[in-house]
Structures are given as structure tokens and as C-alpha cells.
Amino acid sequence: MKNPEAQQDVSVSQRIRMMFYVMKPSETSFQTLEEVPDYVRKATPFFISLMLLELVVGWIRKGKPPGGLDDALTSMSAGIVSQLPRLFYRSIELTSYVYIWENYRLISLPWDSPWTWYLTFLGVDFGYYWFHRMAHEVNIMWAGHQTHHSSEGYNLSTALRQSVLQIYTSWIFYSPLALFIPPSVYAVHLQFNLLYQFWIHTEVIDNLGPLELILNTPSHHRVHHGRNRYCIDKNFAGTLIIWDRIFGTFEAENEKVVYGLTHPINTFEPFKVQFHHLVNIWTTFWATPGFFNKFSVIFKGPGWGPGKPRLGLIEEIPEVEGKEVPFTSSASQLLKIYVLVQFTLILAFYEETFADKAVLSQVSLLLRVFFIILTLTSIGFLLDQRPKAAVLETLRCLVFLGLCRAGHLKPCFSSLSFALEIFFSICIAFWGVRSVKQLVSDPWR
Ligand SMILES: [Zn+2]
Ligand SMILES: [Zn+2]
């Protein structure tokens, strides 16, 4: 029998509460996986509203507009890239879980019992702790997770900086739950666990008093994002900080946290943000002598080297002073506004593609994904001030006009199509002139 209280339509009150995991079992228990709402997609307006609220609070506190547009756009861009595979297939975290449930389950806990709900809450959070810890302690898993840590800022947008690769290893840590917990209950908590971690990415909230003992909070997670020596491999929690306290990885926030990777990548390009560490592993793998050493390069910590302990040496982590300045784009303010306009357009287009994916042809879907990736790459090139940025942007604008004419970008832009075609034509003229100048002056850069 279906649960009458649970509804696929998520009310405004539920949408607000789900951002903080304040949900009742009765309103979020479903018999089948198909009934489970896509809570994460429904949260997009709250992601944007809360980011704007944080911006305003930061502005008022500091008395000047907070910078970091380049960093925030790169984080949101990584969030978009990480979601694109979902246009084509269900996430591997669900597919693998359903497979194990259908073929190997030992018992079936009742989907409508509050006990199952609370047990799953703990189980998913425990699985997340171990996944997250291994994502820092196993080099090949770090290749995915490092994306999330590559921002040198710390605000709500950082939460959206997600890896496209990490889902291919995280499913392993949740799979034991499939031996006894129904997929519909798991799918609910997997989403709430992720949503909870959004609001803790902020410097606006200082300390939450006694809640700091049990919950993962902004303060605890700031430590996790730090590259100070005392922050390395600490506070892996998702929702409950108790796991770090139990397993000895807890560290309280004390000296000023400097955010980002210990070896900064200094780029806004989405491909580098997602995949640069795979290149590091590849080169280290071939440069390291001996079969077992090569094996260790992949499966021991990112800081490991022959003769060192599994997780490397803490003395090799570069010291920070607390005065470090986050990497910023040298693009002009006008160019940043242009990039913001293009990003807003592609965000609307991305949302619409998800909303209409059932009615779009496979070819249209593929072309749309190609255009989204091309746009985000071009934005990265512009922010990085790469020599070929003008050429890429000219090509991208031409692709836009081509796809528009071929009907693959409708209906999103249909009402605006005339205005947008004029806008993109002006862009082609502007960037085209710059491309020619660049190619004439230095064709090989
Ligand atoms: Zn992490
Ligand atoms: Zn984080």
C-alpha cells in the first residue's frame, strides 16, 4: 500500500526543511524507487537564493562586494558537469544498489517503518564517512574528489563544485545497505545527505554551540577544506560529526584556515578542474620504479612515495601563513560581466534540458550536452585569459547559431531566439576580430 502522507510534489516547507535534513519519516517514505522525488533538482532555486543571501550578508559585513565571481562560476560549472551523465542514465549509486537488492538481499526491512528510515539515515551517513575518508586516502579516488577541494574560496558555491568521477567509487561504500534496506528508502537519504552538506559551506555562520558536538557544521567543514597542516585528512563527516570523533579524525577549528589544494592548480578550466590529478597519477606511475611501488602510487595516499608512510609525510605539506591570496582571474570587469551573462544563459538552458529530457531526441540531447561543455570550457578559457580564448568563443557562438537554426536549442530560446541570434552575431563579430588579431600576431600560441 502506498503512503498517503508522502507526496511526489514537494511543498515549499519541505523544500526548505530538506536543505537541513529536517524531514519526517512519514512524509518521505515511498514504496518504490520511481515514487521518490528528485529532491536535489528541486533544490536548485534554494541553492541560488541562499548563495545570493550569503552574498548580501558578506557585502554588509565587509562593507564592499565580495569578490570571487570567477571561483563561484567555476564551482557551479563543475556542479553542472557532474550532473550531465544523469541525462543519459540513472546514477551508478542507484543502479548498483538496485542490482544488489534484487539479487543478493538477505532480508527486506519494511519501507514504511520509521525504524528503517532512521537506520538508513545512520547507514548512509556512515557509508559517506568511509567513502569520503577513502577519497582522501586512496590516490585514484582522490583524483575524483580533489575537484571539490580545488576552490580557494569557501562559500555556498563551493558545495556545488562536484566531481564527475567520484560517483564511480562512492557506490561501493553504500552497497552493504542493499542487503537489507529497500532502494526507495536509500534513494531518499542519499539525496538528503548531499543536500545537508550544502549549507555548511559558509563562513557566515561561526559556531553553533552544543550542536557542534553531534552535527557536521560550517566550522568543522571549514577545517576539512583547509590546506593548513592541522587540517589535512580531518573531519570527513557528511551529516554527523560523531564518526570523526569515534574514528579519530576530528579536529576543531583553531588557527585561520587557508582553503584549497596543497598544490594549487590556478585555473578556471572545467577539464583541468575535473581531471588534472589523473594526469599527475599517470606521470608519477611511470616515473616510479618497481611493480609494487606503481601499485602503491594508485592505491596509497596522494602524498605517498617510495619509503614514506601510506599517507605521506605531514612535513611535506607546504606551510601556510594565513595571508595567502586566493587565485583570481586577471580578466577585466567587463569581460567578467560578459562571462556572467553567458553562464546565466547556459544555466537556464541546462535546467530546461533536464526538465525536457524525456521529450528530446537522443541527438538533441547529445548536441545540447556538447554545447553546455563547450560553453563552460570557453568561459574557463576567458577567465584564464588563454591566448586561444577568442578563437574558442567565436567558434562557440557559431555553434550556437548553427544549433539554433537546426532546431536543437528550442524551445528554451524560442521566445528569445531573434534577440539572442542578434546578440550572438554581435559576439561573433567582436570575438572574430580578436581571433584574427591573435592568429596573425602569434598563430602558435
Ligand atoms: Zn573532502
Ligand atoms: Zn566540502
From TrEMBL:
Cofactor: Fe cation
Localization of this protein: Endoplasmic reticulum membrane
Entry keyword Transmembrane helix: yes
Residue ranges of domain Alkylglycerol monooxygenase C-terminal in the record: 335-422
Domain of life the protein comes from: Eukaryota
Pfam families: AGMP_C (PF24858), FA_hydroxylase (PF04116)
Residues forming coiled coils: none
Domain Fatty acid hydroxylase: 118-249
Main location: endoplasmic reticulum
Topology of the protein relative to the lipid bilayer: Multi-pass membrane protein
Recorded catalytic activity of this chain's protein: 1-O-(1,2-saturated-alkyl)-sn-glycerol + (6R)-L-erythro-5,6,7,8-tetrahydrobiopterin + O2 = a 1-(1-hydroxyalkyl)-sn-glycerol + (6R)-L-erythro-6,7-dihydrobiopterin + H2O
Keywords of this entry: Endoplasmic reticulum, Iron, Lipid metabolism, Membrane, Oxidoreductase, Transmembrane, Transmembrane helix
Membrane-traversing stretches: 362-383, 414-433
The protein's Enzyme Commission number: 1.14.16.5
Record keyword Transferase present: no
Protein's job: Glyceryl-ether monooxygenase that cleaves the O-alkyl bond of ether lipids. Ether lipids are essential components of brain membranes.
Listed PANTHER family: ALKYLGLYCEROL MONOOXYGENASE (PTHR21624:SF1), STEROL DESATURASE-RELATED PROTEIN (PTHR21624)
Assigned protein family: Belongs to the sterol desaturase family. TMEM195 subfamily.
UniProt protein name: Alkylglycerol monooxygenase
Protein species of origin: Rangifer tarandus platyrhynchus
